[in-house]
Amino acid sequence: MNLESPKVTVQKSAEYLFNELSQVKNFEKLMPDNIAKFEVIDENCFEFGLKGMPEIKLLKKEATPNSKIVLGAASSKLPFTLTANLIEEGAESTSVQLFFEGEFNAMMAMMIKGPITKFIETLAGNMGKL
Fold first, then answer.
1. Residue 59 · residue 44 · CB < 8 Å
2. Pair 97, 7: CB distance under 8 Å
3. How many domains does the chain have?
């Protein structure tokens, strides 16, 4: 299952956004209002929970300076990645788009498609809070 957020433009440099997203603690600023838990495990890992959803642990898997950050599920039960692509449009303007990729059976995909789509749209929409 592949989902993508709308592309959002943030009035920050790509370097600034990359540095902020490289620190997993900053993902708390991007979370939706219905967050029930957010805990930093270490510098590359955090766990969060939304009301009514299971808790998810994410690890920073890849970082390409000023252009891409890839987070992945720490559990192999639900294998997926969340990628933030950063495209510098000017000295203080960057477009950001999030991509969610996961392998789920048809039933699971049907159940989580709506909530995950809303979740990544919220994360993208909150990029300006960094």
1. yes
2. yes
3. 1
Give the up-direction half-sphere exposure of residue 88: CA atoms within 13 A in the CB hemisphere.
12
pLDDT band of 51, cuts 50, 70, 90: confident
Query: Measured on CA atoms in the order 19, 23, 29, 34, is the torsion positive or negative?
Result: positive
Residue 42's domain spans which residues?
Answer: 2-129
pLDDT, one tens digit per residue, over 93-122 is 999 999 999 999 999 899 989 999 999 999
Strand, helix or coil for residue 29: helix
At 113, the amino acid letter reads K
The DSSP letter of residue 104 is: -
Domain CATH for 9:
3.30.530.20
- Whether the per-residue pLDDT at 50 is higher than 90: the answer is no
Distances (CA, A) of 89 to 14, 43, 94, 129: 9, 29, 5, 19
Contact between 31 and 119 under an 8 Å Cβ cutoff? The reply is no
> Is 122:28 a contact under the CB 8 Å cutoff?
no
